[in-house]
Design a protein that fits this description.
With 79 residues, this protein is α+β, with helices and mostly antiparallel strands. A two-stranded antiparallel ribbon has the order 1-2. The protein has a domain of 34 residues. The chain is elongated.
Length: 79
């Protein structure tokens, strides 16, 4: 991946960027990177369905229904 990195006096960038006052009058580092092509990134996206299957604990599957409600009740019941 090509990129450009340059250290400049922020006064040279005053008319180009809206810099915060804390950066004015200081040396700043400018890094220019290409934007990732959206079409290429979308092509790699797929379904996450089943990706954690290897971590499943079959003996606990029957306890999943209502587990969140039970945890909330246990945590906040005495308040």
């Amino acid at each position: 991946m090509d990129y450009v990195r340059q250290v400049l006096d922020s006064e040279k960038l005053y008319n180009i960027f809206d810099l915060p006052h804390s950066l004015r009058g200081r040396m700043v580092e400018i890094i220019v990177l290409p934007v990732q092509d959206e079409r290429a990134s979308n092509a790699r996206l797929g379904s996450a369905y089943g990706c954690l299957h290897k971590y499943a604990e079959p003996s606990l599957i029957s306890k999943e229904k209502g587990a969140w409600e039970q945890a909330v009740m246990k945590k906040y019941a005495d308040r």
